[in-house]
Design a protein that fits this description.
Blueprint (H helix, E strand, L loop, with lengths): L1 E3 L4 H11 L5 E4 L9 H13 L3 E4 L1 H9 L3 H11 L3 E4 L8 H13 L3 E6 L10 H14 L3 E4 L19 H11 L6 E4 L3 H11 L4 E3 L1 E2 L3 H8 L4 H13 L19
Parallel strand pairs: 1-2, 1-9, 2-3, 4-5, 5-6, 6-7, 7-8
Helix pairs in contact: 1-2, 6-7
Length: about 260
């Protein structure tokens, strides 16, 4: 999932051309879509839709609508503008479970894909791993298609990250245990390269990653494919340990047939 905080049509088109095959979700971060001229936003969303991306405004914008008692209006407006999904979060405001379920249903009834987020933005009010995973499973049961794990744009001091941006391995293990076979329905917001590398190492090349900067999509794809130090080094060490690659072994010349 790419986080877009204000790309114009030309840059958007360029990004689609160079990196489109590696992008699934396109989020217009926090409340930025409300500041974009409506005609421009429609044209941009139409361009993204023509390439099959799932598009949604940031969850903070929906939280504003909920505070203003305009949830249904918000869903209709998002659909009419050309969004294909919405992010449903309670990162800033308290949202009772019954209301959370109703908002998910409201999105689905409006013809939108419901993508929820678990976690809080306040570093002093962080849920534990069990709370995050239990809520994620509940959201999926209520109809959410994917669940984002809060990481903000900084990747520090929230969710699975400490104030330096380091991942808590204990939290990851606990969440994986609770999620079970639903773990692949999570999208980990991971804006920093070390976080991305650690999550790829823990869950594999196809792990869902979000809040990826638009200009780092190809860099992340190289990371997934083992084409950067962080993910190539473990491959090298594993192949050496298994005897599948020997540094001193000289390659055979092209075109030389080996008899016998």
């Amino acid at each position: 999932m790419v986080i877009d905080t204000g790309l114009g049509l030309a840059v958007t088109a360029d990004l689609i051309e160079t990196s489109g095959p590696y992008i699934d979700h396109w989020k217009l971060g926090f409340g930025t879509s409300a500041a974009v001229p409506r005609d421009l936003l429609r044209r941009k969303l139409a361009l993204l839709a023509s390439h099959g991306f799932l598009t949604y405004p940031g969850g903070t914008l929906l939280e504003v609508a909920i505070v203003q008692q305009h949830c249904r209006v918000f869903m209709g407006r998002a659909r009419d503008l050309g969004f294909s999904a919405v992010e449903i979060s309670d990162g800033t405001l308290p949202l009772p479970l019954v209301r959370r379920r109703n908002v998910i249903r409201c999105a689905i009834d409006a013809g939108l894909v419901a993508i929820t987020e678990v976690g809080k933005k306040d570093p002093a009010a962080q849920p534990d791993a069990r709370e995050l995973a239990d809520l994620a499973l509940q959201d999926l049961e209520w109809g959410a298609s994917w669940v984002l794990v809060e990481g903000r744009e900084s990747g520090k001091g929230v969710g699975i990250y400490d104030k330096e941006g380091e991942i808590s391995g204990e939290m990851l293990d606990q969440m994986a245990d609770v999620m079970g076979d639903k773990i692949d329905r999570l999208i980990w917001e991971a804006p920093l390269k070390p976080q991305q590398a650690a999550l790829v190492g823990r869950f594999g090349n196809d792990v869902g990653l979000g809040n990826v900067r638009w200009d780092e999509v190809l860099a992340l794809e190289a990371l997934r494919a083992g084409l950067r130090f962080e993910t190539l080094q473990p491959i090298v060490e594993r192949r050496k340990s298994l005897g599948q690659w020997k540094p001193e072994q000289i390659e055979k010349a092209l075109g030389v047939e080996v008899s016998g």
